[in-house]
Amino acid sequence: MFKTIENGYTLGYVPRPLVIVVVGENPFTVGWHTPVNKNPFLYSISIDKTNYSYRLLKDNFTINFLTSEYFEQILIAGSYHGDQVDKLSLMKNIHLIDSEKVASKSILESFMVYECEVYEKLDFQDHSLVIGRVLAIKYKRGKVKPKNKLVFSMGKNYYCFNTKGFYKKI
Ligand SMILES: Cc1cc2nc3c(=O)[nH]c(=O)nc-3n(C[C@H](O)[C@H](O)[C@H](O)COP(=O)(O)O)c2cc1C
How many CB atoms lie within 10 A of CB 80? Predict the structure, then answer.
């Protein structure tokens, strides 16, 4: 039989792919993100209001997709606050570059980047759901593949990588 639990939002080892969101020049790791509309293409992230990035966020941000090669850097971006620690100096092999359509920077090492302008914000008690309108989808040719190894969070400091992707038709 089922049991119920209060405050068990981290329970359930459902892997969530991790991205690094950059607000201005501040990178932070996000597991709560998803596409929400096709046309216009809208992509949402949920930001903890205690994060420096929440205070920084005005009207744009970028979503940076990185392979598991950058696992360490993803953890660093998700472990320190940008107003207290110079995260970028700790995140070896990560370089910020100018974006094409928004003021927030992009991460050069990403295999794909969504440049977003804030479309809507929904403030909850401790998180803010920020829906971005994707103004530019940038990708590296030959690097967006189903076999890309990504980092997934499973809650409570558990992580996993996907194995190989495969094509299947019914
Ligand atoms: C695996 C993982 C997933 C995370 N997911 C989110 C998330 O979805 N939303 C969020 O606001 N913070 C998330 N965080 C926490 C922030 O990345 C972390 O608090 C970070 O230090 C915030 O940086 P900042 O204060 O410079 O904005 C996550 C951290 C980790 C390690």
Answer: 16
Q: Which domain does 88 fall in, by range?
A: 17-161
Token pair for 55 = 């205070």
DSSP structure class, residue 1:
-
For 116-146, the pLDDT digits (tens) are 999 999 999 999 999 999 999 999 999 998 8
* Region 92-115 average pLDDT: 98
Question: Which amino acid residue places its CA nearest to atom 1 of ligand 1?
Answer: 153
Mutate which of 13, 30, 66 for ligand 1? The one with the most ligand atoms within 8 Å of its CB, which is 30
**Mean pLDDT across the chain, nearest whole number?**
95
* Structural domains counted in the chain: 1
Residue in the structure block whose two tokens are 């309108």: 133
Q: What angle do CA 21, 24, 29 make, to 5 degrees?
A: 20
CATH of the domain at 48: 2.30.110.10
Greatest alpha-carbon pair distance for the chain in Å reads: 53
> Ligand 1: does its nearest atom lie under 6 Å from the Cβ of 24?
no
